Amino acid sequence: MKEDFLRPPRTLAEWTADALRLIGVLGVVAAAIWLQPTDAGIAALALPALMLPRMLGLRPWFDVTACLIVLAAAWSNVFDLYTSVPGWDLLLHFACTGVLAVVAALVLSRTGVVAVTRDAGAPARAPLVLLPIMALAISALWEMIEWLGKTYVSDKIFVTYQDTIGDMVFGGLGGIAAGVVLAFVGVERERVGADAAPPRSHAQDRR
């Protein structure tokens, strides 16, 4: 991961992804100076999700897509687009949860926790089953964070039972879409250095 993270950008898409990451960092600084502390905190929560695609060495098209969606999800909260634009909340939960599920699957595969991708030795159908489950787990965590924010940080955060269930449903649908993508489309570019060899799955170790 270190080699991929330090790898200089070579294509327009890679430069674009890195520019989006820089925008994310500068956005945190701008929010801390000109907006509310809670807005800076929301913007800062997006930073790990912006950095992970580069650390994992994902293909530029997915890297750019992930950065755009994560930034949109974070700043939609800052500018109250979730409550002012009908359907925007559900669309972002679908897209962002799907992207995060793909990233989480690759992290679990790379660290040898569980084989989710074909490169890690999993069957092609594994993402179709595991990604929706992971997306539902991410959706539940997302809703917990929103509840904690409303309860202990600001009552302006919109949380209702119907909103929570709807968000989780669309997050699960995003996981289904992510599973299809991960099963049939490659999102990992050629790895470099020590990361070139994929981790062995537990099933392979038992053979």
Number of strands: 0
Radius of gyration, taken over Cα atoms and rounded to an integer in Å: 18 Å
Q: What is the CA–CA distance across the termini?
A: 27 Å
Mean of all residue-level pLDDT scores: 87
Number of helices: 10
Number of domains: 2
Q: Which stretches are poorly predicted, pLDDT < 50 over at least 5 residues?
A: 192-207
Q: Into which percent range does the helicity of residues fall?
A: over 70%
Q: Helices and strands: which structural class?
A: mainly alpha
Backbone shape: globular
Strand content: under 5%
Largest sheet: none
Q: What string gives the helices and strands in order? A: HHHHHHHHHH
Describe the structure.
With 207 residues, the protein is an all-alpha fold. It has 2 domains: 1-79; 82-188, no CATH class. The chain is 71% helix and 0% strand. The protein has helices at residues 2-6, 12-34, 37-45, 47-55, 60-78, 81-84, 88-110, 126-152, 161-184, 202-205. The longest helix is centred in the C-terminal third of the chain and has 27 residues, at 126-152. It is globular.
In a nutshell, what does this entry contain?
The chain has 10 helices and no strands.
Annotation keywords:
globular; 2 domains; mainly alpha; disordered C terminus; single chain; 207 residues
